[in-house]
């Protein structure tokens, strides 16, 4: 489950999710993770998984980040 979907289902905003994860987490960081703009560090991935009872996994963050990236434009012309 994506972090955004979990937060919506639980009725959490960025500040509330940050508070659940820990006092060293800012709402701004949660916002970046939520929209796939950044991937949390390993220890933080574990904490997110713990506070969501495994509903949001490390793989969910990697999937969200890859979906957020725009596809590369196709190159024209064939290689000779």
Automatic annotation (TrEMBL):
InterPro entries: Cro/C1-type_HTH, Lambda_DNA-bd_dom_sf. One of its GO terms (molecular function) is DNA binding. It comes from the Bacteria. Pfam families: HTH_3 (PF01381). Gene3D superfamilies: lambda repressor-like DNA-binding domains. Residues 3-51 form the HTH cro/C1-type domain. Signal peptide: none annotated. This is HTH cro/C1-type domain-containing protein. It comes from Methylobacterium tarhaniae.
């Amino acid at each position: 489950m994506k972090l955004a979907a979990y937060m919506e289902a639980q009725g959490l905003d960025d500040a509330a999710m940050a508070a659940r994860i820990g006092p060293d987490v800012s709402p701004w960081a949660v916002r970046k993770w939520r929209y796939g703009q950044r991937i949390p560090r390993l220890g933080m991935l574990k904490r997110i998984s713990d506070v969501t009872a495994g509903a949001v996994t490390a793989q969910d963050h990697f999937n969200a980040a890859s979906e957020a990236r725009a596809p590369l434009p196709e190159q024209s012309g064939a290689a000779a």
